[in-house]
Amino acid sequence: MTEELNIWKWLGTVDGEAAICVMPLSPTTAQIVAMRKTMSAEQVRATSDATRARVKGAKKLNADFAARMISDITGIEMASSAISSVHKAKRFASVLGQGSTVADLCCGIGGDSWGLGQVGLKPIGVDSNPNRVWMYGHNTEFDVVCGDAFDDCPAGDGFHLDPARRTDQGTRTLSVEDFMPGPKVWEKLIERFDGGAIKLNPGVNAYDLPAGEVEILSEVGGLTQAVLWVGKLAGECERRATKLGIDGSVCSIAGEAWRPDESNEIGAYLGTLDPCLERADLVGEFLELTKTRLVHPGTGMVTADEPIEPVEHPMVRWHKVHDVIKWNRKKVKAALRSLDGGIVEVRTRGAVINPDVEQKALRGKGSNNQMTVLVYRIDQKLTAVIAERVRG
Q1: What is the dihedral angle through the alpha carbons of 236, 237, 242, 247, rounded to the nearest 10 degrees?
Q2: With 90 as the cut, is the pLDDT of residue 240 above it?
Q3: Taking Cα atoms as reference points, which of 324, 251, 321, 328 lies closest to residue 290?
Q4: Are 193 and 156 in contact (CB under 8 A)?
Q5: Residue 388 pairs with which residues in a beta bridge?
Q6: How much is the pLDDT for 167?
Q7: DSSP-assigned beta bridge partners for residue 241
Q8: CA-based torsion, 70, 73, 75, 79: positive or negative
Q9: Confidence class of residue 392 from pLDDT cuts 50, 70 and 90?
Q10: pTM assigned to the model
Q11: Residues 173-202 as b or e (16 or more Cβ within 10 Å = b)
């Protein structure tokens, strides 16, 4: 561990930074041989990893933070995005107050502490991995402790915990009993602090978690994390679904968890819901708020006589329905032809078809490039909805 840590520390020097700046993303054998004249094999390997991490981090983290950070690829994968870290930090600041101290436990490379710092809070990192401790200190310049998440946890006004969610074999796990640290440590932290947050997989079973508010976060590209808010940081409702926009916009729906089991014929308009609503068990809440109807349980589709306002609602994508037929490529293509279809978008769920293959196969010679074909399994039947995206 000491030798590996020394390599990471070297990357934080002037020579290490210079090496990162000139390292190709995919170095050739000749380039590696040339670098080995001035660097060890371990230095070359770490420099390559850090370079690729910066490129990957630039798409997820704050640009300035990513440009100067030292991390490996795994550190980037585990870190919260800039959007989600700031979103969570704002709740800490609004409840605990500006200048409050937050213990960032299992802090990793410092992604969540960066967000806490952006809103005027004072994070203190804790991690048991010396490499991560050094990276955190380099990346954030906040105080950091190398130690156990509970035994070495500093005093503070609140805590943020990001437990490891992989088994001993390195595979991802959704079982809370496999998280490190696990529920027994969570309970001790909840007793010690007035409020906090535990970062979890978006697919975690919310019914296995301690009392609190479970918030499911969705960003461009899909679900990113679940957050268990506890103590005074928890809201009045048990669930919250939140869609975070790249422009800083936030759309949240909160309520009590329940799963409607109704089924309705597809009407004039069809809406596909953001997955955070289903994962948070708030589809029923959405139906009541919008006066829409569920197509079928588990489809994430609603229907209405008119799309809800505003049409560009972050939680739903509306389509004007032209036809609903049993899935058959030949018949769907004929229907598209009658609508002057050209380039077509194909959307599905559960991999019931290959959308890339079908999108190419269904492309027509018409001038209407706004058509969408939604292929879903509804009541055990493969159904194709031929529709057109409604925009505000």
Answers
A1: -20
A2: yes
A3: 251
A4: yes
A5: 320, 371
A6: 61
A7: 216, 253
A8: positive
A9: confident
A10: 0.93
A11: beebebbebeeebbeebbeebebbbbbbbb
